[in-house]
UniProtKB/TrEMBL annotation:
<keyword id="KW-0698">rRNA processing</keyword>
<dbReference type="GO" id="GO:0030488">
    <property type="term" value="P:tRNA methylation"/>
</dbReference>
<keyword id="KW-0004">4Fe-4S</keyword>
<protein>
    <submittedName>
        <fullName>Dual-specificity RNA methyltransferase RlmN isoform B</fullName>
    </submittedName>
</protein>
<keyword id="KW-0808">Transferase</keyword>
<dbReference type="InterPro" id="IPR013785">
    <property type="entry name" value="Aldolase_TIM"/>
</dbReference>
<dbReference type="GO" id="GO:0070475">
    <property type="term" value="P:rRNA base methylation"/>
</dbReference>
<dbReference type="GO" id="GO:0008173">
    <property type="term" value="F:RNA methyltransferase activity"/>
</dbReference>
<keyword id="KW-0479">Metal-binding</keyword>
<keyword id="KW-0408">Iron</keyword>
<dbReference type="GO" id="GO:0005737">
    <property type="term" value="C:cytoplasm"/>
</dbReference>
<dbReference type="GO" id="GO:0046872">
    <property type="term" value="F:metal ion binding"/>
</dbReference>
<dbReference type="InterPro" id="IPR058240">
    <property type="entry name" value="rSAM_sf"/>
</dbReference>
<keyword id="KW-0949">S-adenosyl-L-methionine</keyword>
<dbReference type="Pfam" id="PF04055">
    <property type="entry name" value="Radical_SAM"/>
</dbReference>
<dbReference type="InterPro" id="IPR007197">
    <property type="entry name" value="rSAM"/>
</dbReference>
<dbReference type="GO" id="GO:0051539">
    <property type="term" value="F:4 iron, 4 sulfur cluster binding"/>
</dbReference>
Length: 391
C-alpha cells in the first residue's frame, strides 16, 4: 500500500468524481452525482425530470435517506425496475459505532477496497449536532500533532463516499441525538488536497431539495494549501476554517510541514485579499494549543498582529494526546489566560473542549497508522526541553 508524503501531495489536484461507477462496473453510484447530473442520467434512461426530483428527495430529503430500492416508495414501478438494474445507492458499509462517555459517536465505515474511514457525530446541549466527515483515507500533510498524519495518504475519497457519511449519520443517529444541523470537514484528510470531490460533496449537502444543510453550517478546514484555498473561496458558499497552530514560520515549518511551501505571510495575505470580496464572511482560525510550543504570551501577541485585517473568529483547541506523540496539552488556566489576551484585543475567541477523546474520536485522533508511518521531524533545539524525555 502506497503512503503518500508531503513532497508527492501536490501531484494530485483532487481527482474529480463526475461519473461514479459501483464496484461491479455496471451500476451507477447515485450518491456521486449532483442534482443536474442525476436529472441528466434519469432522462438518458427515458424518464422525466420530475422522476429525478422524486428520487433525489428519497435519497436525501423527507427523512428517508434511502439505501436500497425497497425504500423508494411512491416511485413509478417501471422507474424502480430501471433503478434496480442500473443504480447503486450505498457508497459505504457500516462497520462499527463506538460511543464515548460524553455521548460523542465514532462511526467506522469500510470502503469497497477494504480501507476504513472514521466519521464523528458530536451532540451539543444547545440543540446543535455536528457530523465531522473525512475527505481522505489518511493524510499527506504530516502535521506532527495529528494521529491521522502518521498514516500518510492512502487515497482520496470520492464525492459519494464523503456525502454518504452525512447521509449515514442522519439515518443512524437522528432519533438518538436529534437533528444533525452542522457538517465539518475536519475528519481524516486534508479537504483541499481533494478539492474537486470536496466541493462537489459540499454542493450536494447544501442542496435545498436534499440534505438542506445551510452553507454557513458546512465548514471545510485546511492546513493552508493557498491555490486551492483561493479556488474554494471563489467556487463555494460554504464556510472556511484554517488550521493555524503557530505564530512563526520556524514553529509552523516544524509542526505543519505544508508551511515550508506556503508561508504564514502568504497564507494570511491571501485571506486578507480574498475576503474583501466575500460579504459578511468570517474565516475560523483553529489553534491547537501545545504546552511550551505555541502558548506563550509572545504567541498571543503575535497572533493578534497576524490576523489584523482578516474578518475572523479564533478557536482555541486543547491538544488530544495519542500514542507516538510527544506533545502535551496546554493547561486549562493557561488556555484561559491566552484567550483573555486575544479577547482583550477585540478578537472573537472560542475555547473548544475535547469531545470523544476516550474513544479516540477527538480532534487529531482519527485513523489507524500501520507499520509504515510518516516521519517525525527534527525538534528545533529551543523546544527540546518543552517536550522533554517523551521525544
Amino acid at each position: 500500500m502506497k503512503h503518500e508524503t508531503l513532497d508527492e501531495h501536490e501531484a494530485h489536484g483532487g481527482d474529480g468524481d463526475s461519473v461514479a461507477i459501483s464496484n461491479e462496473g455496471l451500476k451507477m453510484l447515485l450518491k456521486g452525482m449532483t442534482y443536474p447530473e442525476l436529472e441528466k442520467w434519469v432522462q438518458s434512461h427515458g424518464y422525466r425530470p420530475g422522476q429525478a426530483m422524486m428520487l433525489w428527495k428519497r435519497m436525501y430529503g423527507n427523512n428517508i435517506w434511502a439505501h436500497h430500492i425497497d425504500e423508494l416508495e411512491g416511485l413509478n414501478k417501471d422507474f424502480k425496475k430501471m433503478l434496480n438494474e442500473n443504480a447503486e445507492f450505498k457508497a459505504l458499509t457500516q462497520k462499527e459505532i463506538r460511543t464515548a462517555s460524553d455521548g460523542t459517536r465514532k462511526i467506522l465505515f469500510t470502503l469497497e477496497d477494504g480501507l476504513v474511514i472514521e466519521t464523528v457525530v458530536i451532540p451539543c446541549d444547545r440543540g446543535r449536532t455536528t457530523v465531522c466527515v473525512s475527505s481522505q483515507v489518511g493524510c499527506a500533510m504530516n502535521c506532527q500533532f495529528c494521529y491521522t498524519g502518521r498514516m500518510g495518504l492512502r487515497r482520496h475519497l470520492t464525492a459519494a463516499e464523503i456525502v454518504e457519511q452525512a447521509v449515514f449519520a442522519r439515518r443512524l443517529l437522528t432519533d438518538e441525538v436529534g437533528s444533525i444541523t452542522n457538517v465539518v470537514f475536519m475528519g481524516m484528510g486534508e479537504p483541499l488536497h481533494n478539492i474537486d470531490n470536496v466541493i462537489k460533496a459540499a454542493d450536494i449537502m447544501v442542496d435545498e431539495q436534499g440534505l438542506q444543510f445551510s452553507p454557513r453550517k458546512v465548514t471545510i478546514s485546511t492546513s493552508g494549501l493557498v491555490p486551492q484555498l483561493k479556488r474554494f473561496l471563489h467556487e463555494s458558499s460554504c464556510s472556511l476554517a484554517v488550521s493555524l497552530n503557530a505564530t512563526t514560520d520556524e514553529v509552523r515549518n516544524w509542526i505543519m510541514p505544508i508551511n515550508r511551501k506556503y508561508k504564514l505571510e502568504l497564507l494570511l495575505q491571501t485571506l486578507r485579499e480574498e475576503l474583501c470580496f466575500k460579504k459578511n464572511y468570517k474565516v475560523l482560525f483553529e489553534y491547537v494549543m501545545l504546552e511550551g510550543i505555541n502558548d506563550s504570551d509572545g504567541d498571543a501577541e503575535r497572533l493578534i498582529e497576524l490576523v489584523k485585517g482578516i474578518p475572523c473568529k479564533i478557536n482555541l483547541i486543547s491538544f488530544n494526546p495519542h500514542s507516538g506523540s510527544f506533545f502535551k496539552p496546554t493547561k486549562d488556566e493557561r488556555m484561559i489566560e491566552f484567550r483573555n489576551t486575544l479577547a482583550g484585543a477585540g478578537l472573537v475567541v472560542i475555547l473548544r473542549l475535547s469531545r470523544g477523546d476516550d474513544q479516540m474520536a477527538a480532534c487529531g485522533q482519527l485513523g489507524k497508522p500501520g507499520t509504515i508511518q510518516a516521519p517525525l521531524l527534527r525538534v528545533p533545539e529551543q523546544f527540546q526541553m518543552a517536550i522533554g524525555s517523551s521525544a
